């Protein structure tokens, strides 16, 4: 509306000012001195362009977010030292208008408050105001590696070169004076032993293995979503899992539980003091189609040990997401409800429908992940990332583990007692194996194991707890070392005074001692087929544990556990390694064992 007191000339000038922006934006209508519109003498007048009034622009820092994979909201804030970090600086404008070309710098300070230097934003200048949903509208700073330390701090300043005229420059710095701590805290690296599984289902003469030449399909995800400085991987010798019955194939829950028990046993026998997370990697999809849903992994809840598939094939990115999910269970995370098929639900998860709730950020490539499009990796949904809730809780769990004291230790010959408990309280005792080890007695719990001698005499008693299987509701298993007693002929498990299971056998079998009784036959490439005289027991089935040492007995790795055949195809062993390699074969009748060690020298 135009005020009636305006004279015609004022009206004409105002009309020109109002339509000028439109003319400038329409192609072909850009007005220059050479293309002024014709004005009649009655309309002619002088105009001095531009005719515009600007109020004072005021840029200010509205927020600063330190991000290592997810934006931390109030109550879940933790920042890990020596972990790749991006700082997002949000710039506001007093009147909400767009301001182009806003730049900034971030300066770092060490624990002694000494200036380390200043860095410019990765994305140069931006258009303000900033929005959380647009990574290009925030000033993003990748911190130098040597700034990622406890006690280090920073300050941020925008428009520091005064390229943009402002009416108020006092709010261009955060904090106003001094510096703001990053609040980095120390956390241990994640150390993982990957155990590749050679899988042979019951009823098949073929076997499958995961991709082992390049494990990047497995290892890429943990470092970008877990609260760790780095993930370190060691790769185990290949372990054979040959299903003894159809119900133990890896298209069944029983099969995955059995494989988890094997991996947990291998882990405890090789790493009794708990320095590593062991992860069995199996190419299950080679035999079991997963188009309509399938089991892809299983893990111990709150304790080390897990197994997972290699993806839909011998090596696919789904393997890494499964690895993170199962490690989450090891770090005592329950499932997040998303698809509705999850069990063992975390009732405290703060965001609806399994969504991550805050913006995620892939610090490797700068990809921003919207909270409505991505779901927590502890759910069964497909587009997964980490929520700040899960990130924070995993840190808290791992931090508490560092201060957890170990139980009473012992050193010497030990027997490893293991088994499974069903939801119906049915106990299965698995074969006992023996070795020399330095470790701790089991943590005390509601269960008791009695070592029995002749005439049911109790030789020793130990309290213990069981491990919950996270992905198998109601199922539990156990495995622990206790000092070995040569007089032991039986094992009794109790819960209070209730006897859950009792088993006794008499030792009446042994392995051949002579290395000449171990036949070594060259097979495909550098692999070696070993066979030995079958051991029999009059009353019990006999199981074997095979361990390989490539360093003359200094260290051992399990190749097969609960093995029923009297031959095994070994992994590749070079000629140089073979001259120092030893093969240990231990036979078990369930309680007693017989052990022999054979050299694999070519000249024997």
Task: Briefly say what this structure is.
With 604 residues, the chain is mainly β. 13% of the residues lie in helices and 33% in strands.
What's the arrangement of secondary structure elements?
Elements: H1 8-25, E1 59-67, E2 79-80, E3 86-93, E4 99-102, E5 104-109, E6 115-120, E7 126-128, E8 139-142, E9 153-158, E10 173-174, E11 180-181, E12 184-185, E13 190-200, H2 216-219, H3 222-225, E14 231-235, E15 239-242, H4 253-270, E16 277-282, E17 297-299, E18 306-309, H5 318-330, E19 360-362, E20 367-369, E21 375-376, E22 384-385, H6 388-402, E23 409-421, E24 427-440, E25 447-452, E26 458-464, E27 467-468, E28 476-483, E29 490-495, E30 498-504, E31 519-522, E32 528-531, E33 543-549, E34 557-563, E35 567-569, H7 575-578, E36 582-588, E37 593-599
Shape designation: elongated
Q: Which spans of ≥5 residues are poorly predicted at pLDDT below 50?
A: 1-54
CATH topology of the domain at 59-185: Immunoglobulin-like
Estimated structural class: mainly beta
Question: Architecture of the domain at 59-185, according to CATH?
Answer: Sandwich
The top-level CATH class of the domain at 59-185 is Mainly Beta
Number of helices: 7
Number of E-type strands: 37
Termini, distance in Å? Answer: 106 Å
The Cα radius of gyration reads 34 Å
Profile the largest sheet: 6 strands, mixed
Provide the helix percentage: 10-25%
What amount of the residues lies in strands? 25-35%
- Average pLDDT, rounded to a whole number, is 89
